[in-house]
Amino acid sequence: MKRSLPIFVVLAALLVAIAVANPYFLDPPAFLAFVKRAAPLVILAAGQYFVIVSGEFDLSVGSLVTAEVVIAARLIDGTAAATWPVMVLLIALGLLAGLVNGSVTTLLRVPSFITTLGMMLILSGAVFLWTGGSPRGALSPQFRELGRGSLGPVPWSVLILVVTAAAAIWAMRADFGRTLVAAGDNDRAAALSGVRVPRIRTIGFMISGLSAAVAAILLGGFAGVSAQVGQGLEFQAITAVVLGGVVLGGGRGSVVAAMAGAFTLEALFTLLNLYGISGALEPAVQGFIIIGAVALGAVNFRRRRPAVA
Amino acid sequence: MTGIGKSFLGVRVLQGVDLEAAAGEVHAVVGENGAGKSTLMKILAGVHIPDEGTIEVDGRSVEFGHPVEAQLAGVAIIYQEFNLLPERTVAENVYLGREPVRRGLVDRAAMEKATGELLRSLGEKSFGPRDLVRRLSVAQQQVVEIAKALSLNARIVVMDEPTAALADHEVELLYTLVRRLAGRGIAVLYISHRLREIFELADQITVLKDGARVTTAPASSLDAGALVRLMVGRELDSYFPPRAAGPPGEALLSVRGGGNDRLHGIDLDLRAGEIVGLAGLQGSGRTELAKALFGAEPFTTGDMKPRRPRSPRDAIAVGIGLVTEDRKAEGLLLNQQVRDNAVLVARATGRPRSGTDRLLERVRLNPPRPRQEVRLLSGGNQQKVVLAKWMTVAPRVMLFDEPTRGVDVGAKAAIHDLMRELARDGTAILMISSELPELIGMSDRIVVLRDGRIAGELPAGPTEEAVMRLAAAS
């Protein structure tokens, strides 16, 4: 927990900065709107965390989100009755994509960087082929309710986020999570202690796929159907996780900090927006953050290590 | 070399060592594992800088800050693991980094011609300068290394266990090569454990023990027995817990005719309550045997009871545990807490893990802080965490590969006591150690491996000479 403290300080500072620029920001409705906007990224970051902490990467979640939204629009095509079956299908697709990523990475020993990069290209190619460039069909109002609507004053997205976060925290405290971290810290030692490393890493990928499905359902409702809806989300999610102090390569960092990293990124974008700085700068800002955070982590780690063990 | 001394992290590995090698002489440097042979040679080759002492080459005093300086002064070292680029040709490897140049381009023709001459001068006809190193056998690659040394006009060639990776018929070729080098007036420093080759080749023998020189003598003045006594001659000075009182119980693990790439015809029984020591030189297959029993590098032939494990997980299910030789690379999650490490096996295999804190007390973790990250612990405490990891699931058979390597004296005694306690509680134990006094002090019986086969078995408390003779004879 000591290691993840800085991100909470940064997040708090950013929230204060936003509140200074916009005094209404901390009012419940405005703040809930912020959380709602952040929810998909936070969920993706939580999913990405499970992959990164096990020592891998998942670059495919952005295109997976796009593919899911486009498929949902096409299959539902505005009919209310199709909503729930399609949602179940989306979840299954997310898990399947993770299963493929995980199996190819662990059983065929393709580095996950390549596996998921390939999956990203395959999915975006498939979407393009299937839609011919512009998505067809439409989401039903029932489908969009989850991303847009609310239960009383609380948006559905926020509720889903809370449930997701609780599940993620619980999973990381359970044997599953501890073993996943063990595989990320030292897969050789883990395997020699009886951990089924390929299996547990594959489950990590499946959780990431699942988080992409949930994010897609929220984003489809929130932002509507487009062929760009998931663009760049994989890097936002990885940036968020790294920003949370989770170490690339696995074994260190907490899921709470990873989610806080996502909130921080979203807060930063909000702040830039408030000061009228172009949204076009967002990728550049992300680039600086991801390099800076990793460099900082490396410097800290070296300093903390005993000189020679 | 005169009065060479060297310490690593405050541990003295060499002290006042003198070594003199004459031109045209084959000079064997021998000693047990850890006697300081490799460190001494690395100092000569400029890899390590000595804390004290001087080095002279051809009568000129030299100081090497870097291996390249040693090379330029005429010292070449040929390691057990070759430093060759597999995808390059022989000539490219020989002249790596100092290729002859003509008009700004590498002069391949000159390079290949010179390499060809070197190979011919070594009597090597089985391959040429344009062959890819990848396609050469280990013995041929060794010739490339030697050619490289010659191309540097080496005056002193150090060979570190050159026969370790060679087949029998290749060893003869190496002998010829070594004699040829000496015939050219080169001083060959020959490091080996194998008594036969030492007496076959060496003119002079220097014996190192515990970082100091015992003696330098002409090979003709010694025989195998005398040499072994010089290498190990020391008293059992430390205390070991008392051996098992009664006879061992039933066999909890049996292997008949177990074999794989590295092991052949292994017959072994591990019985309840017994500590079996596994002795052998480096490369004899000790670690491989432990890994085979544990299913990490399984036997491909033979029978094993209760069953032949297919994986470590399977072995754990059968009731086998392995404390690995390299605890940082294979034993621990360095970034995790003591507690997470201690329960890892139980967690991975879904078994109960009550009383972790009590266990950490039992292994005498000091101080017992279950939330501390393991990488911050001393070597001894780290090893105790590894022990706790296995004790949580109480395997019936425990394999210990170098359980006290790199731990302090106190932790060592604690680990010894624990091993004996486990045996008393009915665990069958296999212990590997390169430290003969430890192995002899702990074992109820010692099995000696040589070249992947069981060379023999000795009852409790044999002499070091007896073990070494079995391990090194050929």
From TrEMBL, chain A:
An example Gene Ontology cellular component term from the record?
A: plasma membrane
Spell out the subcellular localization from the entry: Cell membrane
A Pfam family (short name) is BPD_transp_2
Any keyword tRNA-binding? no
Checking InterPro entries in the record gives: ABC_transp_permease (IPR001851)
Q: Which residues form a coiled coil?
A: none
Which regions span the lipid bilayer? Answer: 82-100, 112-133, 153-172, 203-223, 229-248, 255-277, 283-301
* GO MF annotations in UniProt: transmembrane transporter activity
User: Topologically, how does it sit relative to the membrane?
Assistant: Multi-pass membrane protein
Keywords carried by this UniProt record: Cell inner membrane, Cell membrane, Membrane, Transmembrane, Transmembrane helix, Transport
What's the main place this protein lives? membrane
Q: What is this protein called?
A: Autoinducer 2 import system permease protein LsrD
Q: Which organism is it from?
A: Planotetraspora kaengkrachanensis
Q: What is the lineage of its organism?
A: Bacteria, Bacillati, Actinomycetota, Actinomycetes, Streptosporangiales
